Amino acid sequence: MEDMNTLNSMVDLSKMAKVAYKHRAWIGLYDDVDSWRWSLSNRTFYTGSQAEFRKWQTKEPNNQHSGEHCTEMYSGLWNDINCEARLMAVCLNITGSDVTFVLINKTMTWTEAQKHCRTNYTDLASVRNMTENEMVKQLVPAGQTVWIGLYRDSWKWLDGSNSSFRYWHDVEPNNRGLNETCVAADFSHSGQWEDWNCDVKREFVCYSVTGVTKQVLKVKLKLKKDSSQDLNDPAVMEDMLKQLRQRLKDHGVNPDDVKLSWRKQADGKVFHKVEKKTEKKTKKTEL
User: Fold this and answer.
1) Which of 62, 72, 193, 266 makes the best surface tag, with the fewest CB within 10 Å?
2) Among residues 26, 22, 81, which one has the least CA distance to residue 199?
């Protein structure tokens, strides 16, 4: 929201282009409609191009309705569908070199099906070739539809950052005009986001990072002997950061120019207790 507040403070609506649906500008969020992947991500399970095998129905996937991020199979052909639909599922079971498929005769959402398969078998079904596609097809009763393990990531940032922050307008994203895979901020409504067809011409917002440096400092803290404080407690760490920010401010540093954070070590902890080394004293005995 800090970034959105900055954008809103910079925009002068009177200077924006007077076009249909004015006061909107492109930002770097987009819907990666081609990022299909299998729930079972272990690359050793796939050889060559097996992870890219697809058996889509004609004109699929089409993301016809917003949120079609999961895959169903019907009569051996695949279709993208909203992950909240409730279908039966086919699980994958791997035992040594044996690969089998199991039909789950119970309706679930895709996420529920994934959890069920991972708990009781190996994962939701990965289909690597036409032979396996036929094996799954034979399991499914005629006229029935099932989940398989193919899904896609949805909204991504062009610069590859992994920020999960979203600021959608009400009922957005809605893919109302189909192929609405790019995002514009509507500055007449506090910069809230809308999905739009990428071919629409709009003003746009760029950004650059200048003069940014990163420095890692090692901090050693000395606790009182009777202290029971847990330095890895998130509340305690946040309180220490607040004190450090205040120290910087007291020394004339603008706190908005510096971002402080703790760096976790390999075991997920920030702080480790260092035991004091004690020298063993040896007693000399004269004979």
Assistant:
1) 266
2) 26
Type of residue numbered 28: G
End residue of a domain, out of 175, 207, 239: 207
Tokens of 21: 């649906």
pLDDT above 90 for 25: yes
Distant-in-sequence, close-in-space partners of 129: CB < 8 Å, separation ≥ 6 = 50, 53
Q: Is 221 helix (H, G, I), strand (E, B) or coil?
A: coil
Distance CA 128, CA 49 (A): 9
- Do residues 147 and 169 make contact, with C-beta atoms less than 8 angstroms apart? no
Cβ atoms within 10 Å of 235's Cβ, excluding its own: 8
d(CA 161, CA 164): 9
Residues 6+ apart with CB under 8 A from 236: 229, 230
- What SS3 state is found at 26? strand
Same domain for 143 and 227, yes or no, is no
Q: Are residues 141 and 236 both part of a single domain?
A: no
For the stretch 100-157, pLDDT in tens is 999 999 999 999 999 999 999 999 999 999 999 999 999 999 999 999 999 987 788 9
Q: Which residues constitute the domain of residue 259?
A: 221-264
**pLDDT number for residue 93:** 96
DSSP secondary structure string, 94-152?
Answer: EETTEEEEEEEEEEE-HHHHHHHHHHHSSEEPP--SHHHHHHHHHHSPTT-EEEEEEEE
Instruction: Give φ, ψ of 126 to 5 degrees.
Output: -100, 135
- 177 with 147, same domain: the answer is yes
**263-280: average pLDDT:** 72
Give the pLDDT of residue 178. Answer: 67
